[in-house]
Amino acid sequence: MNDNYIVGVDIGSYSIAATIGKADTQGHLKILGNSVVQCQALDKDRIRDIDNTAYSLKLCLNKLERIVNMPIDEVYVGIPSGMCKVIPSKGILDVSTSSITKKEVDKVLEVSKIVSMSEEEEIVDFLTEQYIVDNYDKIENPIGMLGRRLEVDSKVITTKKAFIDSITQCFNKCGIKIKGTVIQSQGIMLIYSEKKNAQGNTVFIDVGAEGSNVTIYENGRLSSSFLLPFGGKNLTKDISICIKISMEEAEKIKVEYGNLSKENNCEIEVNSQYKDLTKVDSNLISDIISARIEEMFNFIKDELNKTMNYNDISNIVLLGGGISFFKGIKDFGENIFDKSVIVLTNSIYPEDLLSINALGIVKYVINELKLKYENREDGTIIKEESDNHISNDKNFVSKIKSFLREFF
Ligand SMILES: Nc1ncnc2c1ncn2[C@@H]1O[C@H](COP(=O)(O)OP(=O)(O)OP(=O)(O)O)[C@@H](O)[C@H]1O
Ligand SMILES: [Mg+2]
Hints:
Layout: E1 5-11, E2 15-23, E3 29-38, E4 42-43, E5 46-47, H1 50-68, E6 74-79, E7 84-94, H2 102-112, E8 121-133, E9 136-139, E10 149-160, H3 161-174, E11 177-183, H4 184-195, E12 201-207, E13 212-218, E14 221-228, H5 232-242, H6 247-257, E15 267-270, E16 278-281, H7 282-307, E17 313-319, H8 321-324, H9 329-337, E18 340-343, H10 356-369, E19 371-375, E20 380-383, H11 396-405
Parallel strand pairs: 1-6, 6-11, 12-17, 17-18
Antiparallel strand pairs: 1-2, 2-3, 4-5, 7-10, 8-9, 8-10, 12-13, 13-14, 15-16, 19-20
Bound molecules: adenosine-5'-triphosphate and magnesium ion.
């Protein structure tokens, strides 16, 4: 597969989504296609059934291959932010040379990567926030500066080894190479910042089927995250129990009639488990969904209150299949959170909310690599360094990031 193409894969508890993109001649990202396959792949912190997931993953990627008419053999995989721990870290180094060199920057970065973590965890990313030279802060690149003391503030991101192992197993089974991993919220932050100013504190709530990833960004920087064990499947279950229909039937009704604004009220014919056919008022479906989403949002609000000063939050951003499709969700969310709520959609495929994380992964990777096509005929790429990569070859990220280094 040509290096100029980037494929992002999001494995969830309801669907597997993949997006393929390429940088155009100006270095701008062009999205070429996306594909979503239903598969209950994820179970809390690992892949539920490796064989079944590998089969669905292959289906999903085959669909993409047909769109771009070329084989796909390497991808970037998203890691849900709720599965990650964000560990703030600091590196301090005495500078002995007259001005700061790359060697010293590398050294201080290595120092800041040393954090205490359990044996079950693995580092998946490392984010540099600022350098400080002799107490002058907010420095992006200290190379060449004069100073006696170099500091770096960074965040080490870890996740469960078991999760990475099960994902790797799954891709190995399909003969697909994992070229890198991306913390999903990082891609989402990019999509968001293209539309809105990322200043202030923004909370991203990605409601999937079985889990909700809540991620806090302070002035555009990842600050913390947590995973809550509820999502769209809870709504389906509620409908199934309240009107005594199967989960399959409840899912269909949720998707077709789910609405928080109680507009276009109608009678719905359902296959009851007791009678053959029975009629249900669509307002009842709205009431069931509203009650559960209200409970979910209040729970998230309480968790946010425990994590930070709630008054410091500027915006709440909602995404993910579990809630974003419902008409009226923005007003509903604003009422509960008492904050401005933005529903983030996939601007390239607006109808396809289930693939927004896969789109984010592609955007993030292209942004990281800062792809530029120098020569159209031979497809030569220049990639500018964003010097932020893990060099410890023992962990998973380093294998991925070593790909980035090939271009530096
Ligand atoms: N049109 C729709 N209206 C309402 N809900 C929908 C619609 N389409 C899908 N969903 C719901 O979206 C949820 C799946 O969303 P998504 O694909 O974002 O989850 P996931 O990423 O696979 O799961 P997770 O993030 O929990 O691992 C399911 O609960 C599904 O019922
Ligand atoms: Mg998801």
